[in-house]
Amino acid sequence: MAAAATKTKTTRKAEELVEKTMKGNDASHDASHVWRVRDLALSIAREEGLSSNSDSMEIVELAALLHDIGDYKYIRDPLEAKLVENFLDEEGVEETKKMKILKIINGMGFKDELSGQALCESLPEFGVVQDADRLDAIGAIGIARCFTFGGSRNRVLHDPEIKPRTELTKEQYMKKEEQTTINHFHEKLLKLKKLMKTEAGKRRAEKRHNFMQEFLTEFYEEWDGRA
């Protein structure tokens, strides 16, 4: 688990909260996913010129660490939806920072972009954390995570008769049982490259996107017995 050079007490506590709350998740949304997103976010933040602002870097790191706590796909208790806000209050995070962190977390999901609710794009930290999370959803890691999640939900691997849905609404997207694993590439993952907010994110997404396209070409050829 890599991290910033100097960890604050709040950062260490956030890591502990991640390990505790995400322990029962499948490997597509476990603590390792969070560590990768945190490392990507800090790297992108440096490339985007945020490293000179310690407040921005703290916002980026905490938002990245806490972004999947209370995820609707894994929530076991309605009270979990307040875990992040309660944690930030208990740690005494300054109000302005706290509100930025919560805005990033609550607005960065793909479902929020579908509904037009991703309204905090003016925050430079928002694009950094969102891009980091989306980069971990594509490329080789993204492929592995996609099939891991599909398997955990007993989702159909591929069915040529079930076509990818177009013009998805937030409500349709959240009905995961309607998807096949392969269709998820077309309904979400292949769209992420064009949705990157930072220049650093766009550069990194290019290679990962191309890798997914190559994978899908090979997958369909093997599925049809042509390879």
From TrEMBL:
It comes from Eutrema salsugineum. Coiled coil: none annotated. SUPFAM superfamilies: HD-domain/PDEase-like (SSF109604). Residues 26-147 form the HD/PDEase domain. InterPro entries: HD/PDEase_dom, HD_domain. The lineage of its organism: Eukaryota, Viridiplantae, Streptophyta, Embryophyta, Tracheophyta. This is HD/PDEase domain-containing protein. It comes from the Eukaryota.
